Amino acid sequence: MSTVDRPALEVAVVIEREARPNRWQDWRFRITEVLLHEAAYGSEPRLLRDDGKFARWLHPGFRLELFRDECEGYHLNLTSGAPVWFVMWRIDDEDPSRAAPVIVSVSYTEAGRWLDAQERIDNVPLPADIAAWLQAWTDEHYRPEPKERKRPASFQRPQDRR
Questions:
Q1: Strand 46-50 to 54-65 pairing
Q2: For 60-82, what is each residue's pLDDT tens digit?
Q3: What is the value of pTM for the model shown?
Q4: Cα dist. 26→18, 22, 82, 118 in Å?
């Protein structure tokens, strides 16, 4: 079995933590950016700033690969009117003041599966150049399944209707 090269991008994720956003929460997290990886980011998460109220962390080292069986999800993202990165993230079990991204995708259906599994998902806008790269690949590989016409039940014998 041969391995097929898949297009891929190396990215980094920035997550922001807000301290005491309201009287019911100690912490609130949100993904603020997904950036193309640069060597200067290193390989370990690092604190970018912390002013006591807001803290931002850079998490490098995510690989986004495109897969043919996810083409419909890419197509749905691209045709949504506002393509996005989808980032699944989790709060640290031992320190609820920390959270980290787990995986990055551009597939609408993959993000839907994560939501069905009750994961935390944020999205941030996909830059135009990345959207164009994704669109070119999707155009080459996505073939929508033909829609089958369903015969109206009124034209079927009563015993054949469901």
A1: antiparallel
A2: 999 999 999 999 999 999 999 99
A3: 0.85
A4: 8, 8, 32, 21
